[in-house]
Amino acid sequence: MNYDPLYHPYSSQRMSVYAKNGMVATSQPLAAQAGLEILKKGGNAIDAAIATAACLTVVEPTSNGIGGDAFALVWTKGELHGLNASGPAPIQISADKVKKAGYETMPEYGWLPVTVPGAPSAWSALSERFGKLPLTEVLRPAIEYAEKGYPISPILGKYWNRAYQIYKENLKEEQYQSWFETFAPDGKAPQIGEIWRSPNHAKTLMSIAETKSNSFYRGEIAEKIDQFSKQYGGYLTIEDLESFKPEWVTPIKVNYRRYDVWEIPPNGHGLVALIALNILKGFEFTEKDTVDTYHKQIEAMKLAFADGQKYITDPRKMKVKVEDLLSDAYAEERRKLIGNNALLPIAGQPPKGGTVYLATADGEGNMVSYIQSNYMGFGSGLVVPGTGIALQNRGHNFSLDPAHDNYLEPGKKTYHTIIPGFLTRNGQPIGPFGVMGGFMQPQGHVQVIMNTIDFQLNPQAALDAPRWQWMEGKVIEVEQQMPTHLVEALARRGHSMKWALGTGGFGRGQIIWRNKHGVLVGGTEPRTDGTIASW
């Protein structure tokens, strides 16, 4: 396979974007332009990533917020760094307390699934270690959009209205009133093209910028969160916030056809994508759109998810080693299970031994793969009064079964769905990539990487290609652009095939590659309001 996918003359409906000095790719045009603005002011790719991320909490609050978590992969000065800014469960919560409240599984809304927010800590940690500009300057675009308002874009308006209808139907208690006051101030979701603003959001962002996030974890904002929690019987306390710190971690990888594919280690489930790729590298794929290609991709993904959903949790609590799950010997054993027909996924025994995504790059060689989320849209349905902070519901992923590896325990981090990806070759950066969207994310990573490496598609084509998604058991959803004859052939192999009603469940991706000339090549998601800002 002596080819370089970065130079293949494939074209799709939208062409990849080329630039030299800097690039920002994300799901909302205003946020991408905010990152570019910071680059032009002398900031680097890390500053641009922070600016874009903060801006997304304002201009795409349907997918993330100040009260969510974040992960990042940062390439700078010849090295890849990982940041895990996901928060743990409160110290005072327990599975027994949740069960006594009448739940057999973790609820979606309210205080019980709320975990410590990590996103503000990610901004300050990235800025302090790698940034060039003051955080007050970097967060200025987000603050201005919150203060002055901005027009609602099409996909944003669609999901905002959908969330409003769900919340209106299900969240009738007093504790949810602040969400409606913040995100539906006129008794409805803001409409496409309508101006929405959030002065409280602006004040919170300014406080975070001025204190380098200290006010969020140890100051006035922490006190407001603590007070709100106590008022409605929540378990999150100021002590939980004060004790939290983001973690710099060593990224994990597999070598896939001479490319190193990198992910953040658990508690994130980037490990699932790597397990699948490790299985798939034992096969040869000469054509993309064949039943055999899709069948093997799907079967490998199911096996990887079976392992991931069994073993991934807080790394301090994992019962197996990541290196064992990624060993070639284990991949070979799992690969042997793939035959001609669909199987039900079952976790193996290795040898002992939901979101917004953005990518940035600058002319100095820095590149960032960054993702943050409240989970399941707006999150818990709780907004801290007077702050604009929508709190995440990441704890919904915890299990209440004591035998489960991801069992809810005080201070424990849960299985996490948001994952940034990065690609290198021979120790040199190719660039950041990601596909946000809950449990679609590792599936999107595998499909994008194979589209790039196996099938030689440029960044835009790799994102435009129709996607499939394993749902459960043998159930596979596919986009309507998927060729009918392939869907029917997969059904004959035992897969329970379903056409998706829309594209919302198939993730939203971004890619920036750097070619051998030092030129940046970007692709952005056609399934959302995605855009690339560059110069």
UniProtKB/TrEMBL annotation:
Against Gene3D superfamilies, the record matches this protein to: 1.10.246.130, 3.60.20.40
State where L-glutamate binds.
G438
Q: Which residues form a coiled coil?
A: none
Q: Does the keyword Transcription apply?
A: no
Metabolic or biological pathway: Sulfur metabolism; glutathione metabolism
Query: Per the record, what are the reactions this protein catalyses?
Result: an N-terminal (5-L-glutamyl)-[peptide] + an alpha-amino acid = 5-L-glutamyl amino acid + an N-terminal L-alpha-aminoacyl-[peptide]; glutathione + H2O = L-cysteinylglycine + L-glutamate; an S-substituted glutathione + H2O = an S-substituted L-cysteinylglycine + L-glutamate
User: Would you tell me the protein name for this molecule?
Assistant: Glutathione hydrolase proenzyme
Q: Which UniProt keywords apply?
A: Acyltransferase, Glutathione biosynthesis, Hydrolase, Transferase, Zymogen
Q: Which residues are catalytic?
A: T355 (nucleophile)
**What interactions and quaternary structure are annotated?**
This enzyme consists of two polypeptide chains, which are synthesized in precursor form from a single polypeptide.
The similarity annotation says:
Belongs to the gamma-glutamyltransferase family.
**Upper taxonomic classification of the species?**
Bacteria, Bacillati, Bacillota, Bacilli, Bacillales
Keyword Hydrolase attached = yes
Task: List, in alphabetical order, the Gene Ontology terms for molecular function in this entry.
Answer: glutathione hydrolase activity; leukotriene C4 gamma-glutamyl transferase activity
**Record SUPFAM superfamilies:** N-terminal nucleophile aminohydrolases (Ntn hydrolases) (SSF56235)
